[in-house]
What we know:
It contains 5 helices and 5 strands. The chain is of the alpha+beta class. The chain has a 5-stranded antiparallel sheet. The longest helix has 14 residues, at 87-100. The N and C termini lie far apart (65 Å). The protein has helices spanning 7-13, 20-28, 77-80, 87-100, 113-123, and strands at 32-34, 37-38, 50-55, 58-64, 81-83.
Amino acid sequence: MTDYPRIDKWLWSVRIFHTRTQAAEACRKGQVMMDGLPVKASRVVKPGDIVKVRWSPIWRSYKALEPINSRVGAKEVPRYMTDVTPPEELEVLEMHKAGQWIFRERGTGRPTKKERRDLEDFFGG
């Protein structure tokens, strides 16, 4: 019988989070969902399950393919999960990234040299 991993361990093993503690904290905060409901860190992940993780401002979706109980190299991750995030969500993320550096919060100080160059390139100045 195959032993299925906890969701916090699975998220860490397939490199969605850097540490297992971060994965457990995301579960505790309601940033990890399965079947439309927030899950606890102890929830078991089985092949075929869709796991949604909150990456501001979107929800990324991952499909579990095989059980995994230890962290693997980045090249082996596609064997255990696939990213099934809808293209519309990824477009929202790209728009958010593009618009993020244009607007500066009042009081955040002067732009760095790199930010200034990026602004000059963008505005053609």
